[in-house]
Amino acid sequence: MSRVLLALAPLAAAAVYFFGWRVVLLLACANAAGFLTEYLFCRAWKQPVSAAVFVTSSLLVFSLPPPIPIWMAIAGTVFGVLFGKMAFGGFGRNVFNPALTGRAFLYLCFGAHMTGRWSLPVEGPFGGFAAYAPDAVTAATPGMLLKTGALFPLADLVFGRTAGTIGGTSALLALAGGLYLLITRTANWRIPVAGTLGFLAAQTLFWKLGAARAADPLHALLAGSFLVGILFYATDPVSAAQTQPGRWLYGAAVGILSSVIGVFSVWPAGTMFAILLANMFAPLADHAIRTRRTPPSPARSGP
After folding, report:
1. Within the chain, what is the greatest distance between any pair of CA atoms?
2. What pLDDT shows up at residue 265?
3. Whose C-alpha in 11, 148, 227, 287 is 20 to 30 A from the C-alpha of 159?
4. Running DSSP on this structure, what letter comes out for residue 216?
């Protein structure tokens, strides 16, 4: 968990630079709420609070729009920790990614705040380091604009000079943090590799077939939440598949579903729903794989 937090540090610094010091307040409030929620359960169970709760709380904040009200970030964190992890028995037993569980709750309950109010990065040489927060604007993110045929300069998508979620605007920093997780073997490399290949294959197919609202694969890969999702959320060691073949299937499912939902739904991106759906079927895939590997027991001979 400490390695994941270290990998998230550049994204946190970039988020402050893009969107101001309010990001720090959001992180502090969400982490405090997540810790308190888990502490109340762990105290009753006489167990220590795991460091994973800080990963969950931070990842939830990184998936939110910068102008999100602080109380909503707290509510999403509490819901994610409570119903995404503690309801299943605590750390190591959750089926769904807790951070995305909290985000899905906010997405469905407060859609206007989650999809319609964004912030453009702070201008100036010091960016958000010299500001509390940029003004909220009613604008579409790159993921939504790509569905209308608009294109962004690739440099803006790579470096993060666009509107978007708090931790998901810079493809370069997401790749850097994800590479650290893979090199240190904190995350299993099969999941992001299979996910990226699956996403590019599906997106290329839809783009070549001329599907409406299908952006070209490179812009679709760099814009939105896919890279952060496949590197930090899909690789959660608890809610992801546990067998090696299962990880290939799980990663490919996340990538393909992300493209399908992003192209054919009204949502700007489908990564969150793709990961939650893959979480649901990962235990079944692992069970099927282990069953096939286990040789049948010999039949008993008669008396």
Report:
1. 87
2. 83
3. 148
4. -
